[in-house]
Amino acid sequence: MNGQNRADITPGTQVQIVLKKDQRTGILTKGTVKDILTKSSFHPHGIKVRLEDGQVGRVKEILQ
């Protein structure tokens, strides 16, 4: 799953996100969702989340 639909993401979900500083390079950061920051149900660049370690970025991939 690509992380564009808010309904696919819940706290505790393992995801790969792209941090703001890594948007040019596309480097992904793996982590567990703590908070969902995007209010809309869909975002074309990925739902913005905060990981348990405090990093914030947009979800690029939802891991199973």
Helix-strand blueprint:
Layout: E1 14-19, E2 28-36, E3 48-51, E4 56-62
Antiparallel strand pairs: 1-2, 1-4, 2-3, 3-4
First and last CA, distance: 9 Å
Report the sheet with the most strands, covering strand number, pairing sense and barrel closure.
Answer: 4 strands, antiparallel, barrel
Tally of DSSP helical segments: 0
Proportion in β-strands: 35-45%
Which architecture name does CATH use? Roll
Question: Which of globular, elongated, flat, extended, rod-shaped describes the shape?
Answer: globular
Question: What structural category arises from helix and sheet content?
Answer: mainly beta
CATH class: Mainly Beta
Q: What is the string of SSEs from the N terminus onward?
A: EEEE
CA radius of gyration? 10 Å
Point out poorly predicted stretches.
none
Assign a percent range to the helix content: under 10%
The count of DSSP E runs of length 2 or more, i.e. the number of strands, is 4
Write out the strand line-up for the largest beta sheet, numbering strands in chain order: 1-2-3-4
How many domains make up the 3D coordinates? Answer: 1
Protein name: YwbE family protein
Pfam family, one: DUF2196
Organism: Bacillus timonensis
InterPro entries: DUF2196 (IPR019240)
Please tag this protein with its features:
64 residues; YwbE family protein; 4 strands
